[in-house]
Specification:
4 helices, mainly alpha, rod-shaped
Length: 128
């Protein structure tokens, strides 16, 4: 239910109609309903401010679905951006793994060349 007009009218009627004024329970229920409507309107205004959506004070109930769509679109955009960043991160991690493997292979080759060089130096020193 997004149209609270009927609930507000009924609450206003209970607060002003003499038939209900003497009944404290009806009055309490009407006050509670009006307070909840005011709280919900303030919550709607707060959401509009937070998500950059215009709050129409007169037609805020009608705009509720539009606000929900606006928020969903923002989250959809953020979700798509998050997926893109996750994909980029995975690519970087794969690249880092490949670089690590290449670095290890180069380190082994360097060590082998150092051993070969040491052997050649020893052989050359024996020739002198």
């Amino acid at each position: 239910m997004t149209d609270y007009t009927e609930l507000k009218q009924l609450s206003d009627r209970v607060m002003t109609d003499r038939r209900f004024c003497v009944d404290e329970h009806h009055k309490n229920l009407a006050e509670g309903a009006l307070a909840l409507l005011a709280d919900f309107k303030n919550f709607h205004r707060s959401l509009c401010e937070r998500f950059g959506y215009f709050h129409d004070d007169a037609d805020w109930q009608r705009d509720q679905a539009s606000l929900e769509e606006h928020i969903a679109a923002q989250f959809s955009h953020i979700s798509a951006e998050n997926s893109s960043l996750r994909s980029q991160m995975e690519t970087v991690q794969r690249g880092a793994g490949q670089l690590k493997a290449e670095n290890e292979a180069l380190r082994k080759e360097r060590d082998k060349l150092a051993e070969d060089n040491q052997g050649l130096l020893e052989d050359f020193a024996g020739c002198l």
